[in-house]
Amino acid sequence: MQAIILAAGRGTRMRELTELTPKPMLKLAGRNLIEHKLDILPDEIDEVIIVVGYKDHIIKDYFKDKYRDKIIKYAYQKELLGTAKSVWEAKEFIRDRFIVMMGDDIYSVDVVNEMIKFDWALGIQKVEKEKIGAEVVFDENGHLIDIKESQKLLKDRYENIGLYMLDRRFFEYEPVKKSPGAKEYGLPQTILTAKDDIDIKIVKSSNWFPLSSPEDLEETEKIAFSC
Asked: What stretches of the chain adopt beta strand conformation (E)?
C-alpha cells in the first residue's frame, strides 16, 4: 500500500516562517510536519510519494529515498493547480490503493488505521464550535452523499479533514474545478464525481489539527504535545 503527501505549496499565511522553508518542513514539537505524518503510517504502507514544488530541494535533501522502513519517491508539481492535480502528479507511481494526506495537517494514528480498511474513504471530524469549512454529508450507513465547501458549520456537524483513501480508479475521473471559473482543481470535488460508482466510506476522527498560521502551530503544540 502507498501514501501520497501533498507538500508542493509554500503556505503564505505562515508569513516569514516560509520565506526560506516550505510549509510542510516547519517544526512542531521537534519534528517537521511531514515527519509527523510518516510516523503514524502503519506497516501496511511501504512506499510514500511526496508531491513537492516550492523549495523542493529542502524536502528531498532531508528525506532522500527512505524514511525508516518506507521507500520515499517524489513527484513534482510545477504549477499549483489544486489538490486533485497534485494527486495526478503521482499517478505514474501508484500501484493500487493509497492514502492521501495534506502536508500541513496533523492527523491521529487511529483515523489512519481505520481508513486503510477500505478501498475508498474520507476522513471527517465533528465541529466543536461554529466555523467556516467543508461540510460532509453522509447517510446512516456512513456512506458519502455530499461535500459542501465554504459552509458555516454549526456545532456537531462534520467537516472534511483532508484525508482520503483511494485506489487507481481515481484516475478514471477527470479533475474537477473547485468552483466554476476557478483556477484550481479540488480533490473533494473530483471524489464526489465517483460517489455513484464507488462506495465511499466515512471515517470519523477525534483529533485533527489544520495548520494555517504561526498561531496554529503554537496552539497545536500546547494542546497536542504539551505532555
From this structure: 2-7, 27-28, 31-32, 47-52, 66-67, 70-76, 98-102, 105-106, 121-126, 131-138, 144-153, 158-166, 176-177, 185-186, 201-205, 209-210
Q: What is the CATH number of the domain that holds 12?
A: 3.90.550.10
Number of Cβ within 10 Å of residue 167's Cβ equals 16
Over its length of 227 residues, how does the chain's per-residue pLDDT go in tens digits? 999 999 998 888 888 889 999 999 999 999 999 999 999 999 999 999 999 999 999 999 999 999 999 999 999 999 999 999 999 999 999 999 999 999 999 999 999 999 999 999 999 999 988 989 999 999 999 999 999 998 899 899 999 999 999 999 999 999 999 988 899 999 999 999 999 999 999 999 989 999 989 999 999 988 877 65
Q: Which three cell numbers stand for residue 109?
A: 494514528
Answer whether residue 180 is part of any domain.
Answer: no
